[in-house]
Amino acid sequence: MGDVEGLIFDIKKYAIHDGPGIRTTVFLKGCPLSCPWCHNPEGISSKPHLVYRKDLCIGCGECLNACPNGAIVNKGNEGFVTIPSLCKGCGTCAEVCPAEAREIIGRKETVQQVLEEIEKDVPFYDTSGGGVTFSGGEPLMQPGFLVPLLDACGERGIHRAVDTSGYADPATLMAVAERTDLFLFDIKLMDPDRHRALTGVSNERILSNLFNLAGTGAKLAVRIPLIPGINDDEENLERTATFLKGLPNGISSIHILPYHETGLSKYKKLGRDYRFRAIGPPSDNHIATVVKRFSDMGLEVKIGG
Ligand code: SF4
Ligand code: SF4
Question: pTM of the entire structure?
């Protein structure tokens, strides 16, 4: 299974917010949700994505000459523009660009290649109680790649965490659960209609997957992004706490992730609008109130990942 390929967009070393200890986080590309506050917008598309930075372009024309598909045109003041319908995402233009003005986000790697990266940091995992975290995007969208990776890490005694939106085929989730030591499970909104309006999908599958996963005794850290004006209202917090309190076998911890705007530069780089530009982070007082609400119900709650 070592030669099975998956599409990833990053491998982050020495991560300390993606589960216990020091971790290596592997980001798999593709997500069925499209949350407008997403901090990893480059992970949403399940295809490689070409980024062009006109501010870095020196106008040499190397990319235009190298593109095998005639997908680049010189539009003068607009720069060396890519025609999306002709671009195959091959990355040739990025390879020849001397100014790093073109970049392909998303690369195919084999299970063996990713495993070799993960294994390099085993001494850090051993001394810190860390391991590997598979994130995204939504890692459960690539089960043919994720499952053998989880198996290979398990055979080497590496702690395995999976960071998921929970929007996955239930059978796939259960297959992954058999090979996972900890789930980082995101809960955003309790109302199905509001959830659909914001993320593009209903939350019914997510909540039933979380309920069933808890029923297996899986270790669960539930993560709640706290987004002012979106999910920090009384009603949603009450429904969230009541639902989590009622899960079979309980959950290990709740992590409140206060909204921040560090992902803004990524939207600019991708040439996309950031719909949430006007909303600021929650105040310290508000965060403390939310933490108290969950802890008053006997739930273990932390701020941050
Ligand atoms: S990624 Fe490939 S097809 Fe797309 S513009 Fe660059 S060279 Fe052309
Ligand atoms: S190769 Fe790079 S620097 Fe040269 S025109 Fe293309 S994008 Fe600009």
Answer: 0.90
Where do the H-state alpha helices sit in 163-298?
170-177, 192-199, 204-215, 234-245, 264-270, 284-296
Q: Which two tokens stand for residue 110?
A: 């084999």
Per-residue pLDDT tens over the stretch 216-252: 999 999 999 999 888 999 999 999 999 999 999 888 8
Block residue for tokens 């992954």: 176
pLDDT in tens, 244-267: 999 998 888 999 999 887 777 777
| Helix orientation angle between 111-119 and 143-155, rounded to the nearest 10 degrees | 40
Residue nearest to atom 6 of ligand 1 (CA): 93
Instruction: State how far the Cα of 110 lies from the Cα of 148, in Å rounded to an integer.
Output: 10
CA 102 to ligand 1: nearest atom: 6
Closest CA to 102 of 49, 150, 149: 49
Locate 262 and state its tokens.
């560090």
Candidates 190, 279, 185; CA nearest to 237 is: 190
Atom of ligand 2 lying closest to residue 96 CA: 1
Q: For domain 5-45+107-303, give the CATH number.
A: 3.20.20.70
Architecture of the 49-104 domain: 2-Layer Sandwich (3.30)
